[in-house]
Amino acid sequence: MRPGGASPQANRDTSLPLEVMTLVTLDPGVGPAVISALAEKGAQGPIRIELVFTGCCDPSLGLSVDTVRESDLVEELDGLTFVISPETYDLVGEVTIAYRDDAGRKGFVLTSNKPVSEWDGFATCSIET
């Protein structure tokens, strides 16, 4: 178990050894910002980290409220549940979530150990419901 949260777990065969890995790191203040964003939208549930495609640009990382799927990797931090598919995790690695509230730039900024594009961590995103 790492400080501040539980070890990530996958819903998989428990007879296999479970690797301890970090899926998500939250910058200071992100937990309360996520809780506030969910409350504003009247949403609750696990937060999925996923690849988002806008059609005109390279893929980026995004957040959405979702359910836990059988194969998901799961990590709990600051009273929040984050989920990511094993395929996405293999592609991007550990994801760091920051929160920005600057003039004209308010939202969550996601960066990963293995950037998915040259724009990794450049734009802010909201939590899709």
How would you explain this protein's 3D organization?
The chain has helices at 30-41, 86-92, and strands at residues 9-10, 24-26, 47-52, 60-65, 73-77, 80-84, 95-102, 105-112, 127-128. By secondary structure, it is α/β, with parallel strands linked by helices. It has one domain (29-128): HesB-like domain (Hypothetical Protein Aq_1857, Chain: A), CATH 2.60.300. The termini are far apart.
Annotate the secondary structure layout.
Elements: E1 9-10, E2 24-26, H1 30-41, E3 47-52, E4 60-65, E5 73-77, E6 80-84, H2 86-92, E7 95-102, E8 105-112, E9 127-128
Parallel strand pairs: 2-7, 3-6, 4-9
Antiparallel strand pairs: 1-5, 3-4, 5-6, 7-8
What is the compact description of this entry?
The protein has two helices and nine strands, in the order E-E-H-E-E-E-E-H-E-E-E.
| CATH A-level architecture | Sandwich
- Whole-Å distance between the termini? 29 Å
Fraction of residues in helix: 10-25%
Which structural class matches the secondary elements?
alpha/beta
Question: What structural keywords apply?
Answer:
three-stranded mixed β-sheet; 15% helix; disordered N terminus; 35% strand; alpha/beta; 129 residues; single chain; Hypothetical Protein Aq_1857, Chain: A; six-stranded mixed β-sheet
